[in-house]
Automatic annotation (TrEMBL):
This is Outer membrane biogenesis protein BamB. InterPro entries: PQQ_b-propeller_rpt, PQQ_rpt_dom, Quinoprotein_ADH-like_sf, WD40/YVTN_repeat-like_dom_sf. Residues 1-25 form the signal peptide. Keywords: Signal. Residues 436-524 form the Pyrrolo-quinoline quinone repeat domain. SMART domains: PQQ. Residues 32-51 have a biased composition (Polar residues). It comes from the Bacteria. Residues 27-55 are annotated as: Disordered.
Length: 581
């Protein structure tokens, strides 16, 4: 396969880059191996950089019967175990409490009461060591159909796990707390909903005795559609995080099937719940009528300069930061907000415009916030933006402010389709309070006088950044994998995977792993130097450790726990471990 790759004509080594220059496998993995990865990104700061040693760079997933999904391990290599998922898997795996949890649909047919042809949103639990199926949480599809609960799109988020408790967002627009043991411990821990009685009654109506051991044990439910009037677009998906006893949740409030009307403009976009009982603490509807499409970003939490911050990506293309304690009266307390789109960018149906919303999760690293903009992958390719934001400023910290010539010294309210319309007398002016430290979009890095449409352009992205040793990586939906200096925004190198990337990079053990829609996992050496990160193969530059095909599309992000690599493709979850020869 031909590979496109950009090598800068001249590269300047800065002190912050030196640990990763020339890095080889194991050079940076001196800490104790990570023993749990309990949420999306591993922690509330969302930076996918666990610790591990001697991770595999070669494996073979074996063969599969595509009619039954059965695994034939005869040709497999370095595969510890394989678990059957559904037919479409977008949820990222987390591993905690001795179990691997992943969201998918019901095509795997694990439960007798729900055969594989019954469409559900499913959260599955497997034994971390053996891959044995343990239990399933089942979310029946909403009767309103694809406007709220798209067919075959199951649970698309990752849960949060702490001890024997797990919190996640269902495809029905609910926040649920469950016991990580399910009913395998023989106990019904549900304090609010009697899930056991409901399930047994359903089974009895079909004239069947039912063994509860593979069922989820639900403690409490907060229904965002019924309680808050939320109307999610196509699906509800948010990988929640916490700060103390507070859960942070994006409600997914969005447009209806017309892609024009907003059914619930006054419904909140961001909420905080009590972790213990699901009690509503505060709400915020800042995106309001300016929601462009849907809202599927996940929140981030960090304490920055002594100030706790709950950071959300909005469906209007703005980043918002709140005090997670709220205002004490059920409302939010805004710290800062940041418009991540140029003011003259335009929203056009079907992805034909230049204005984007935020699907990626903000990442906090060394006291700075990093976030990219994007759109629904079905909208195709387009120009994107990656920002580095100083979160210590307050108020409107956007790069520019919008004005109108009738009152040139008064800012005008934000407008959904186009914030600044020159034909109406609008204009933008640099914001003296801007928190933008750098912006990565289109740059002629090799000084040839032209912008390469692919390798010198940041495109729309669903993915988050990963940062370690002064090197940042991010993949975009045009299939370009970017390596950037996180302090300056200068590009070190970029690489064309020739397939869209939905997930995010993993930095671990001196390596960088990234999957794509073609099912390939590219493995680079972790380095700002392209000659170290990649190797020459037949006159082409390729990832240093090559690419490995997973037999089906990889929409998820690889993670590592206890020196085992976990990767899910559309239909299976793989535990990958380097074995003795």
């Amino acid at each position: 396969m031909a590979i496109r790759f950009l090598l800068l004509a001249s590269l300047t080594l800065s002190p912050c880059l030196s640990p990763a220059w020339g890095a080889t496998a194991g050079d940076t993995a001196t800490a104790k191996p990570t023993s749990e990865w309990n949420q999306w990104g591993g922690s509330s700061t969302r930076n996918n950089t666990p610790e591990a040693t001697d991770l595999p760079t070669e494996w073979n997933v074996g063969e599969f019967d595509f009619r039954t999904g059965e695994w034939d391990p005869s040709t497999a290599k370095n595969i510890k175990w394989v678990a059957r998922l559904g037919s479409q898997t977008y949820g990222n795996c987390v591993v905690a409490d001795g179990k691997a949890f992943v969201g998918t649909n019901n095509s795997g047919g694990w439960l007798p009461r729900y055969p594989g042809d019954v469409d559900l949103g499913c959260l599955l639990a497997f034994d971390q060591e053996t891959g044995e199926f343990l239990w399933q949480h089942s979310s029946e599809k909403l009767k309103t159909g694809r406007v709220h609960d798209w067919p075959l799109q199951g649970i698309c988020c990752a849960p949060l796990v702490q001890g024997d408790r797990l919190w996640f967002v269902t495809s029905r627009g609910e926040v649920r707390c469950v016991d990580t043991e399910g009913f395998r411990d023989g106990e019904n821990d549900g304090a609010v909903t009697d899930e056991e009685s409901r399930i047994k009654a359903q089974a009895a109506s079909a004239g069947a005795e039912y063994d509860m051991k593979n069922e989820a044990d639900v403690l409490w439910v907060f229904d965002m559609m019924n309680e808050l009037g939320v109307s999610q677009h196509n699906m509800c998906s948010c990988s929640i995080t916490d700060c103390g006893d507070t859960l942070l949740v994006n409600t997914s409030n969005g447009l209806d099937e017309s892609h024009i009307n907003l059914p619930a403009p006054d419904a909140p976009s961001f909420i905080a719940l009590d972790k213990n009982d699901g009690r509503l603490l505060w709400t915020d509807k800042s995106p309001g009528e300016n929601i462009l499409h849907g809202q599927w970003s996940s929140p981030t939490y960090a304490v920055i300069d002594g100030q706790p911050q709950a950071i959300f990506g909005g469906g209007d293309g703005w980043v918002y930061s709140f005090d997670p304690a709220g205002d004490g009266q059920g409302g939010a307390k805004l710290l800062w907000k940041f418009d991540a789109n140029p003011k003259e960018s335009t929203w056009i149906l079907g992805g034909r415009g230049t204005r984007n919303n935020i699907i990626a999760t903000p990442v906090v690293h060394d006291g700075l916030v990093y976030v990219a903009v994007g759109q629904d992958p079905e909208h195709g390719e387009g120009v994107g933006h990656l920002w580095c934001i100083d979160p210590t400023k307050r108020g409107d910290v956007s790069p520019e402010l919008a004005f109108n010539s009738k009152s040139p010294n008064e800012t005008i309210p934000h407008k959904r389709i186009q914030a600044v319309v020159p034909e109406e007398g609008d204009f933008a002016r640099a914001n003296p309070n801007s928190a933008a430290l750098w912006h990565y979009s289109e740059t002629d890095w090799n000084d040839d006088g032209e912008i390469d449409t692919y390798l010198e352009t940041m495109h729309r992205s669903c993915g988050t950044v990963a940062i370690k040793d002064g090197v940042l990586y991010i993949a975009d939906f045009s299939g370009i994998f970017h390596c950037i200096d996180p302090k300056t925004g200068k590009q070190n190198w970029s690489y064309d995977m020739f397939a869209a990337a939905w997930g995010s990079p993993l930095i671990v053990d001196g390596k960088v792993y990234i999957g794509d829609e073609d099912g390939d996992v590219a493995i680079f050496r972790h380095s700002a130097d392209p000659k170290v990160a990649m190797k020459e193969d037949g006159g082409e530059m390729t990832p240093h450790f090559g690419e490995i095909n997973m037999s089906n599309s990889v929409y998820s992000t690889p993670i590592v726990v206890d020196n085992v690599l976990f990767i899910s493709n559309r239909t299976h979850l793989f535990a990958i471990e380097k074995k003795d020869e």
